Every structure is written in structure tokens, then in C-alpha cells.
Amino acid sequence: MTLAILLSALAMTLIVGVRYLLASAGFALATRVRQPGLYRGLDRQIRREISWSLASAAIYGIPAGIVAWGWQARGWTLVYRDVHAYPIWWLPLSVLAYLAAHDTWFYWTHRWMHAPRPFRIAHAVHHASRPPTAWAAMAFHPWEALTGAVVIPTLVFVIPIHIGALAVVLTIMTLMGVTNHMGWELFPRWLVEGRAGRWLITASHHQRHHQEYRCNYGLYFRVWDRLCGTDKGLGRFDRGG
Ligand SMILES: [Zn+2]
Ligand SMILES: [Zn+2]
After folding, report:
1. What domain range is 93 assigned to?
2. 123 is a domain residue
3. What is the distance in A from the centroid of ligand 1 to the CA of 150?
4. What spacing in Å lies between the alpha carbon of 56 and ligand 1's midpoint?
5. Total structural domains in the chain?
6. Is 240 contained in some domain?
7. Would you say 51 and 138 are in contact if contact means Cβ atoms under 8 Å apart?
8. Where are the transmembrane segments (predicted)?
9. Cβ(203)–Cβ(180) below 8 Å
10. Which of 147, 180, 192, 225 would suit a FRET pair with 73, their CA atoms being 20 to 30 Å apart?
11. How many angstroms does the Cα of residue 86 sit away from the middle of ligand 2?
């Protein structure tokens, strides 16, 4: 049993690590095509971003691996395989519920980590990326990584979700983590600056957090930032931020 848990944790660490490397490499390549020279002179920073991110992969992989083992071997969690186990409308709603719960957790822990002491101890690592690149998606100090790593493994015990919907959540999590840091806007202007953009977070919004620190704390949605008066609107993409 111990070996099975260990193997599951190891497998999850590998999955998270490879997923990070592929997603970040893909968008770093896209950056080279779309914004040649954007990461010029950032080689040392990028190496650091990759090291912290790979350490984070283990911190994310271990709790995920333990829970995945429990799901398979012990029937833990509310993750279901039969798509008809819950009404079909629950599929998209469960995705939204996971994103909203994660966003809420992230907003408040992130805001807390901007207090001087937690910032110094944990969050400074993430902000050492100036400006962040596509490799910064998981560049967190282990303490900060831990606050992120517990989210999905906890939610699966609280909110029922189909395994496919969970895969969608994890894909959105990975893609937004990478694209929000890559230094240019991937999504079309009509979306970012339109009605949907008033509520959704993309690179333009998170860039401003990295430039000004004390605003735009959210992860997926601007709801908490707007409610709490911490939303400063979209940032600009000039180097040196
Ligand atoms: Zn960031
Ligand atoms: Zn921050």
C-alpha cells in the first residue's frame, strides 16, 4: 500500500512536471514567433523560473497522487465516471464551481501573501520574475506552492465532478497559469476589452499585478478584485514591468 501511494505521488509529480514543461515550452515558442526578442536577456531568470516550477510540480504532485490513489483504491472523493450520475447541466456548472472556488481561495491567500512578512518569506519568489515569462507559471516558493497544491485535492472531497470535467478544470488552470505570465495578450481585443473581459482575467490583467503589486490579485475572475476595490484595470505590455 505504501509503495502504491508512493508510486501514485511520483506519477502525479511527473505528470504535473511534464505538463508544465510542455505548456510553457509551447507558449515560449509562440512568444518567439509572435514577439521576437521579448525574453532577450532573461535566460538566468528563466532558468530560475524553471527550477522553482519543477519543485512546485513535486509539491502539487504529492497530495494529488495520494488523493488519486485513494480514489482508485478506496473510493475516496466525489469524482465520478458515469456521466449520468448527476444531471448533465452539472458538467459545465461543476467546472464553473471549481474555478470560482479556486479563484476565491487564490484571491484571499494571494492578498494575504502581499503583507510584508508572508511576502518576504514566500511570495517574493514569484515576483522576482520581472517581467514574468511563459516559464513563470509555477514559479512559486514551496510555501506558496503548498497553498495552491491543496486546492483541487480538497475540492474533490466537497464538490462532485465528472473526471472529464476535472480534466477541463486542470487544462484551464495550466493554460491560464502560463498565458497570464507570458508578457503579451493571447486573447482577442474584443474579448479582453469587451463585456466578458470585465469579469475574466487574462494576461493584460495579471501583468498589472506584476507591475504594481498591490492590485489585481485574482486568478480567473475579476469578481473579488471588483468587490474589494483592488481592481485597477488592464495593464500595458512594455518591457521592464
Ligand atoms: Zn503571477
Ligand atoms: Zn502577487
Report:
1. 2-227
2. yes
3. 18
4. 14
5. 1
6. no
7. no
8. 52-71, 83-101, 150-172
9. yes
10. 147
11. 37
Residue 236 belongs to a domain: no
CA of 222 relative to ligand 1 center, distance in Å: 15
Q: Are 185 and 204 in contact (CB under 8 A)?
A: yes
Q: What's the pLDDT at 201? A: 98
- C-alpha closest to that of 35 among 225, 215, 203, 222: 203
Q: Is residue 233 part of a domain?
A: no
Buried/exposed 215-235: b ≥16 CB within 10 Å, e otherwise: bbbbbbbbbbbeeeebbeebb
**Nearest bound ligand to CA 207?**
1
Residue 185 identity (one-letter amino acid): E
Secondary structure class of 79 (helix, strand, coil): strand
Determine the distance separating the centroid of ligand 2 and the alpha carbon of 41, expressed in angstroms.
23
pLDDT of residue 240: 43
* Low-confidence residues in the chain, pLDDT < 70: 239-241
Q: What are phi and psi of 139, to 5 degrees?
A: -80, 85
Ligand 2 centroid distance, CA of 131 (Å): 13
Confidence at residue 239, expressed as pLDDT on a 0 to 100 scale: 59
The rounded Å distance from CA 215 to ligand 1 centre is 12
pLDDT tens readout for residues 93-137: 999 999 999 999 999 999 999 999 999 999 999 999 999 999 999
Ligand 2 centroid distance, CA of 82 (Å): 39
Which ligand number lies closest to the CA of residue 179?
1
